[in-house]
Amino acid sequence: MLHVLGAGSLGLLWAARLAVAGVDVRVILRDAQALQHWQAAGSSVLFEHAGRRCRVPLPAQLPDSQEQPIRALILATKAYSAESALHSVAKRLMPGASVLMLQNGMGSQQAASLAYPHQQVLYASVTDGVWMPAPRHIVWAGQGTTQVGDPDANPCPQWLEQLDREVIDWHWHPQILNTLWQKLAINCAINPYTALHDCCNGEVLERAGKQMAPLIHELHSLLALHIPGYRLTELSERIHQVIEHTANNSSSMRQDVHARRRTEISYITGFTCQAARQSGLETPVLDRLHEALKTHLATLGLPTD
Ligand code: KPL
Fold first, then answer.
1. pLDDT in tens, 127-155
2. What CATH number corresponds to the domain at position 197?
3. Distance from the CA of 93 to the center of ligand 1, in angstroms?
4. Is the pTM above the cut of 0.85?
5. Is the CB of 252 under 6 A from ligand 1?
6. Which of 99, 145, 91, 140 is nearest to 6 (CA)?
C-alpha cells in the first residue's frame, strides 16, 4: 500500500494514476473536516485526461489513522507545508520507510532529509501540468515526466521499481540534485515575471527584457558550483525551451497569486539568493527580482515569504 499526503492537484494526480494502475493507495487528509467532506462526496475524484473523464475511487484517512503503518509516502504538499505535514505522520513511518518529496524549488527536501535521517528521503522533479477546476476534479493537462533520485546515492526502493511506467512516467536519476538545481534556475527565470506581470510563461522574455541575459548569467554562476562543467549555453537553451514549450501555461506562482494563496518564493528565488550569498556570489539582478516580487505580493495583501 502507498500513502499520498497532500490533496492538492499534484497529490491527487499521483493518487488517481496509482489507483488506475491497480495500486492500493490511501490519501491522507489534513483534518477531520476535510475527511468528512471527502467521504460525503463519495471518496473519489473526477480524473480528466486527453478529453476523457473517469471517476476514480480513492479511500482517504487522517494523519493519525491507526489503519496501517506507512512503508512508502508520497509527499505532495506545497513546499512550505512539507515539514509540518511530514511531522503529522512521523509516528506511522516504518523503519526505513521511504518518503518521496514532490515539492517545487529547493529547501523543503533538504529539511526533510535532516529531520528524518532514518528514512529514505527521495527527491523528485515533476513536469506534469495539472489543475483543479473544482474540488476533487483534476485535469491532467500536460503529460510530463518525473525524475526521482536519492541524494545519498542509495538504490531505488522496490515499491518504486514496481511502479508501472505506462501510468507514471518516472525515471531514476542518480544525480537528482543536479536536476533540482536546473529546475530551480528555470523557475527563478520564469515564475517571478509571470507573477509580477500577471502573464503566461510565453510572455516572460518580453517582460524581462534586458534583465534576462544577466539573470541567466547569475543563475549559471551558482549552478556551475554545484554541477561541475555545466555550461551557460545549456542553461540558457533550457530556459528558452521551457518558455517556448509552456508558452500558454500559467506558472505555479501565478496560479498561487490568482488563488490568493501563499506562494513558494522562499523556496524559489529566496532559496537561490541565500545559496548565492553562502557561496560568496553576487546576484544583483536576482536579488532585485526577489525584492520586487516581495513588494508585489505585499501590495496584493499576500504573504511575502
Ligand atoms: O515549473 C514551472 C512552474 O510553473 O512552477 C514552470 C517550468 C515554469 C512551468 O510552468
1. 998 889 999 999 998 889 999 999 999 99
2. 1.10.1040.10
3. 31
4. yes
5. yes
6. 99
